[in-house]
């Protein structure tokens, strides 16, 4: 007798994923907390790398969450492979607080510290992009798991965008050797543009 992988609704996957995203965003803000001695106004201003790192990571994780929501609004069922691929995306996303802390501590320090921090962020960016590609291509090749046949086209288009995000990660890594701050700004602007585009897309196609 043939046996087939059990398919599940997406609600539990979305709820679990949302919980992971919420925890990651909470961990990001911990680096902004002052020490036991508090901070003077001058020290607060001098801590601008922390604020830049936090904002960059927050926008990045926020864009991942928006993309995840858009993708799963088009997914009807998930199987074991999709569950594993989704865990891979969550694993990559959960690493975000690590390079964020490195940037907060490294920007304004030595050139080696700045470069190391940006390269770590670049590595996480590439890992997130590759995780997205695997997940999106999985569903693009299995339209029976999607709400509508045309959603496979959306998945393929999103996979190409994810490939572009991998390119952004590589470009950021290259910039780390000449202008680390430019890399950080790049990692803030590109996800920000994605957020704007996703919100506009949701308004045009609320399905």
Distance between the termini: 38 Å
Structural class: mainly alpha
Assembly classification: single chain
Strand element count: 0
Overall number of structural domains: 1
Shape: elongated
Main sheet properties: none
Reading the helices and strands in chain order gives HHHHHHHH
Radius of gyration: 19 Å
| Alpha plus pi helix count | 8
In round numbers, the mean pLDDT is 87
Work out the strand percent. under 5%
Low-confidence stretches: none
Binned, the helix content reads over 70%
Present the secondary structure layout.
Layout: H1 11-30, H2 41-46, H3 48-72, H4 80-94, H5 97-106, H6 111-140, H7 151-175, H8 180-204
Entry keywords:
207 residues; mainly alpha
Structure report:
The chain has one domain. It is an all-alpha fold and 207 residues long. It has helices at 11-30, 41-46, 48-72, 80-94, 97-106, 111-140, 151-175, 180-204. 75% of the residues lie in helices and 0% in strands. Helix 6 (111-140) packs antiparallel against helix 7 (151-175). The protein starts with 10 loop residues before the first helix and ends with a helix.
């Amino acid at each position: 007798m043939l046996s087939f992988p059990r398919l599940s609704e997406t609600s539990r996957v979305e709820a679990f994923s949302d919980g992971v995203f919420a925890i990651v965003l909470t961990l990001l803000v911990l680096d902004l907390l002052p020490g036991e001695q508090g901070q003077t106004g001058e020290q607060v201003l001098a801590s601008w790398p922390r604020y830049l790192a936090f904002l960059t990571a927050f926008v990045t994780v926020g864009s991942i969450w928006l993309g995840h929501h858009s993708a799963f609004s088009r997914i009807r069922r998930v199987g074991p492979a999709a569950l594993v691929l989704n865990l891979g995306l969550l694993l990559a996303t959960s690493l975000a607080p690590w390079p964020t802390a490195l940037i907060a501590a490294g920007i304004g320090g030595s050139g080696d510290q700045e470069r190391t921090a940006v390269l770590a962020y670049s590595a996480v960016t590439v890992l997130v992009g590759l995780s997205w590609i695997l997940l999106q291509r999985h569903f693009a090749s299995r339209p029976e798991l999607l709400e509508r046949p045309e959603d496979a086209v959306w998945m393929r288009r999103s996979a190409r965008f994810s490939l572009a995000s991998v390119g952004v990660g590589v470009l950021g890594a290259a910039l780390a050797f000449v202008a680390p701050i430019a890399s950080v700004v790049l990692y803030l602007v590109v996800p920000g543009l994605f957020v704007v585009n996703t919100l506009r897309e949701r308004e045009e196609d609320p399905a």
